[in-house]
Structure prediction request, 337 residues.
Amino acid sequence: MADAKSMTGPQKAAVLLLTMGEDFTADIFRQLDDNEIRQLGRAMSRIQAVDPETIQEVLKEFVGEVTSPTELRVKGDAFLKGVVSRAITDDRAEGLLDDIGSDIGPAPFETLRDVDAKVLANFIRNEHPQTVALIMAHLDSGKAAEILSEFPEQLQIDVIMRVAELETVPHQVIEEIEQVLREEITSLGTVGAQKLGGAQTVAEILNQVDQTTENAILSRIEEDKMDLANEIRKLMFVFDDLSSVDDRGMRSILKEVNNEELTMALKTASQDLKQKVLSNVSERAAEMIREDLEVMGPVRLSDVEKAQQAILRVAKKLEAEGKVMIGKSGSKEDVFV
Prediction:
């Protein structure tokens, strides 16, 4: 047979596969189309013998090709579709590719993420509440909370109820809504089925609104769906829940909080939480906090809640990093014995 330098691509591939054996070659053939199999088959059928030097040259060239740091010139989505379609049945392949496709590309409603919350609230408040709920479920909880606080109370209740009850929304519906909104907000500057909403999403939103808004919304939900309100409450945690944090975790939280903010937050805290905090700071710092609380006159409840929310954000960040564990006050779940 001719030396490797004068061989065609199919001839080199045929030599390579012949050295790998029948089982390996069969696996490769399952990944080829009919035309590719024909080309390789013709090249193989003409081979009677190959000298060791030619085999060595072909293998060396192959290794050089697959290990060289050249640019990978292949479209990942097309490659994936081809591999999955050849490896498994058509119905299963279609379902898997749809699932994978829903997790790639820009996030739904990406164009809304950089729009000011007040502007966005005014922009979507006249949309159908179900559409508003769908949008809110895609935004991060902080942005959703800001928008929610701009709505009138009845709309707040309606939207939150719909967010809590959202489940699977067809990918096409999301795309259509997003397309309409994108066209409408181009002057402001500048997605498979998706699992959306639910009590967890509502809890994350309500954790970041003021206490008055939270209480009003939960009270209205209780009137219609007590079980849902209870589920949301279980998923939320409030400032006094920090009393469940162990001493080491509390010290981690307090390292990231200034004394002025801490004192303001403790204004309405339970005695248990106050004691927990004071026992995890120095004696001098504890004495200063006690004195500041004693001489502190009337303060706006909104200022107290703002300070508490700031500390809760620190606690949530540390919890997400695995540095603290926060449980619900009075809960017997996740108790270590």
